[in-house]
Specification:
Elements: H1 2-6, E1 14-21, E2 24-31, H2 37-48, H3 52-55, H4 57-60, H5 74-81, E3 87-90, H6 93-101, E4 105-109, E5 115-118, H7 148-156, E6 164-171, E7 177-184, H8 190-201, H9 212-219, E8 232-234, H10 237-245, E9 249-253, E10 259-262, H11 266-269, H12 274-277, H13 280-309, H14 331-351, H15 357-367, H16 370-374, H17 380-392, H18 399-437, H19 455-462
Antiparallel strand pairs: 1-2, 2-4, 3-5, 4-5, 6-7, 7-9, 8-10, 9-10
Helix pairs in contact: 7-10, 13-17, 13-18, 14-17, 14-18
Length: about 475
């Protein structure tokens, strides 16, 4: 039956090892590449040393009329014969198949109702190293990998508390992806936790092809028209552990080297680990500087465009921002083209072989340099301000927030170009409405602790206090 369900004859990586254990026919099912061969070999050596009378007394006393002979069960076999740490007995066929395909070895013994499962998995994975996105000047240099068990161990290493809880789920119909919800039992919002767990259990999709993004869109399908990110991603186990201790919920998805942090406000997204690896004064400066740069990157090009359209309203001290150059392309078009061109360079950098990355940088520098100014495509100020915007987008770790700022900036540019001052004001109103109407996964205000206002909490979000 198992051969037919697993299609073992068609799949070369499904291993079937037939052997005799204490006189009983036995088969071990496992997946090639997901099982520790050395561990299973040692267990098999132990199996060959077993004697029938010690394990299956009913076989040695077939002719006995005694009714006190206990028939060996799967639980008895697991307790007496399987020298492995993680062992359990499974009777449900669907769960058995799911476990085998997850890499757990299954032992089927003739005459025993049930399968003995040995967790001897060994997932292929890369070495733990500092993540490319969440780098820090100080602090630990380890990061999450694509193996969920290793990721949980990295968090567990930092939280040695009995309240730290990890609940595992199988999600999707085809891939049966592993999803683990981590939280502190004594600090978590139980209502939010139960809601998330019920949503995870109720997911009806074929597979989580894009890992975490697929999961989030399945458990929170509404209001994705609002570009402000509702989820914080982190590739750092120290950051995940710190958020978990604060009472947040951490969600890990197998095959994904990052963790989801719930719930998340706009202030949580602008935080990063370096804020806490430096003294309070330095950490506060880094945090305030990051928030200021993010705000400046949103408004610098729309304000410059507004100054170009209304030079009479520009104060005398700021007259230098009004360009006197002759340009062939309208300023709005210049800024939009540069926004798209910079994204094009980012995409090209991702798909360029490492040996050619230096060449790409040179080509990009030539394309967006004085040559474009000399031929009349762009003005000097447009290049300067877009260069600042590009650098500012890397001052905070969230790609989602970076692209959100980009979308808001483009909206402000278009409205300002079309409706002048009224358009700029309308853009500001739209941004405020999007922030006010956005909610965290828990349904609370996205702007907390500003709305509702909490002075102490606001101070902790803006400044790095002890």
């Amino acid at each position: 039956m198992l051969d037919k369900i697993l299609r073992a004859d068609e799949n070369f990586d499904i291993l079937r090892r037939d052997m005799i254990i204490a006189g009983r026919k036995t088969r071990i099912y496992s997946i090639d590449g997901l099982v520790k061969d050395s561990v299973v070999s040692k267990i098999m050596t132990f199996f060959y040393s077993l004697k029938s009378e010690d394990i299956f007394p009913e076989d040695s006393n077939k002719n006995s009329s005694s009714d006190n002979i206990h028939e060996t069960t799967a639980e008895d076999f697991a307790a007496k014969c399987v020298p492995c740490i993680e062992v359990n007995v499974e009777y449900d066929v669907d769960t058995l198949i799911q476990n085998i395909l997850s890499g757990i070895a299954a032992i089927i013994v003739d005459g025993i109702d049930g399968a003995v499962m040995m967790d001897t998995r060994s997932y292929p994975q890369r070495e733990t190293s500092e993540p490319d996105d969440d780098k820090v000047l100080r602090g630990s240099k380890d990061g999450f990998v694509e193996t969920i068990v290793s990721n949980i161990a990295l968090i567990r290493r930092r939280i040695r508390d009995v309240n730290f809880t990890t609940k595992a789920f199988f999600v999707s119909n085809k891939s049966k992806s592993d999803v683990v919800v981590c939280y502190m039992e004594d600090k978590v919002d139980k209502k939010l936790l139960n809601s998330i767990i019920e949503k995870i259990k109720g997911i009806k999709v074929d597979s989580l092809a894009m890992n975490q993004q697929s999961l989030i869109e399945a458990i929170y399908p509404k209001k994705w028209w609002n570009p402000f990110p509702k989820i914080k991603y982190t590739e750092r186990p120290d950051s995940a552990a710190a958020n978990c201790i604060k009472g947040n919920i951490i969600i890990l998805v197998d095959n994904s080297p990052s963790a989801l942090v719930l719930p998340t406000s706009i202030f949580d997204i602008t935080e990063e680990a370096d804020d806490y690896y430096f003294p309070p004064i330095t950490g506060s400066y880094l945090r305030i500087a990051r928030i200021f740069i993010v705000i400046l990157s949103l408004f610098i090009t729309p304000l410059w465009l507004l100054a170009q359209q209304n030079p009479a309203l520009v104060p005398e001290a700021l007259k230098f921002v009004v360009t006197t150059e002759n340009y062939n392309i309208p300023i709005l078009a210049q800024l939009i083209i540069l926004e798209i061109a910079i994204d094009g360079l980012r995409l090209a950098a991702l798909n360029t072989p490492q040996s050619l990355s230096g060449t790409l940088g040179i080509i990009g520098a030539i394309a967006l340099s004085e040559f474009t100014i000399d031929v009349g495509w762009f003005s000097t100020e447009a290049i300067l301000y877009m260069a600042f915007v590009t650098l500012a987008s890397f001052s905070q770790p969230s790609y989602e927030l970076g692209y959100c700022i980009k979308f808001m900036r483009i909206m402000l540019l278009v409205l300002t170009a079309v409706f002048n001052i009224l358009g700029f004001i309308a853009g500001l109103v739209i941004i405020v409405i999007l922030l006010l109407t956005n909610r965290t996964i828990s349904g609370k205000s996205y702007l907390y602790p500003i709305i509702p206002f909490n002075g102490k909490a606001f101070l902790n979000k803006v400044l790095r206090v002890r």
